[in-house]
Amino acid sequence: MESDITGTLYRHQCDLAADVYGVEVSELLTWNPSLGNDTEAPTCSFEPGVRYCGRFYFEPPKADPEVGPSLEFPIREGYDTNCTEFRDVSKDFTCEDVLALFDLTLAQFFKMNPAVGSTCANLWTETAYCVKSPNAPPPATSVTSTSVIPSSTVPPGPGAPTHTGQPANCVRWHIVEKGDDCSILANKYFITLEQFYAWNPAVSNDCRDNFWQGSAYCVGTSDSISVSRSAPPPSPTPSPFVIPTPNQANNAIKECNKAAQAQEGDWCAVSP
After folding, report:
1. What is the distance between the alpha carbons of residues 53 and 30, in angstroms, rounded to a whole number?
2. Are residues 38 and 76 in the same domain?
3. Which of 78, 82, 85, 144 could disulfide-pair with 132, CB 3.0 to 4.6 Å?
4. Residues 150-175: what's their mean pLDDT?
């Protein structure tokens, strides 16, 4: 690149090239060592037919995505691309452990990690999983009604994921929240633990397996709930007091309501 710079403020061709490319002369010389390294030199020119670097481009390395605490295990593939936090699942962890530790429902965990399956049967331990994403917000707090539904209406559905084996005639459901356990549900709905386990056979008898926050459990069936009401029993009518015999004539008034039989050695005393 050789141009006539007569009458301009450029000292030489390198000044002109630096101005054209928007760089400093020192940068131009650094990128093209054949031009020398003296920025104050009175002359600087280019050889015809030779290519020179006029601007140096570079892309800074991309920062690793923020994934929360440093991870010991590899991230399970197929996670939600909008995930904002990952956590390790250690050896011997169960799905129940994961849901309890990170305060998740099964539906949330599956939404963020489809590879585990809708029932969490394909959970891999010693692997990192997504535990927070805007695509899987916490469920709204539900208020479960304990009122009995008239038989003329259609009973409500569970309102949350269920387990296999729950009865078709279940008319009352409870969605498990943080702090619930099987005994709490039995007491709340006035049922026995035996009934609860019979209606929810997937739950282990120690309430540890398959009792998941955010899942629905049967707490009343159509043949276990009575809506009958009866009037309180009438108060008993007291029987009239009967004066025992034998007794001395005229020694008991008609209002007498208690009597005692005199024994040998008894005697009467009148208070002054």
Report:
1. 10
2. no
3. 85
4. 78
Domain count, the chain: 3
The set of residues, in sequence order, having a beta carbon less than 8 Å from that of 152 and lying 6+ positions away, is none
In the chain, helix, strand, coil percent, each to 5? 20, 10, 75
Top-confidence residue, 61 or 45:
45
Residue 64 one-letter amino acid: D
pLDDT at 199 over 90: yes
Which three-class secondary structure string do you get for 137-174?
CCCCCCCCCCCCCCCCCCCCCCCCCCCCCCCCCEEEEE
DSSP class per residue in 28-55:
HHHH-GGG-S-TT-S-----TT------
As beta bridge partners, residue 89 has 127
pTM of the prediction?
0.36
3-state secondary structure of 195: helix
In this structure, the answer to whether residues 144 and 134 fall within a common structural domain is no
* Domain enclosing residue 36, as ranges: 1-58
Question: In this predicted structure, which of 163-167, 205-209, 215-219, 224-228 has the lowest mean pLDDT?
Answer: 224-228
Per-residue confidence (pLDDT) for residue 149, from 0 to 100: 47
Residue 252 lies in a domain: no
- Look at the block and give the residue holding tokens 């000044």: 15
Exposed e or buried b per residue across 201-240, where buried means at least 16 C-beta atoms within 10 angstroms of its C-beta: ebbeeebeebbbbbbbbbbbbeebeeeeeeeeeeeeeeee
* Residue 22, in any domain of the structure: yes
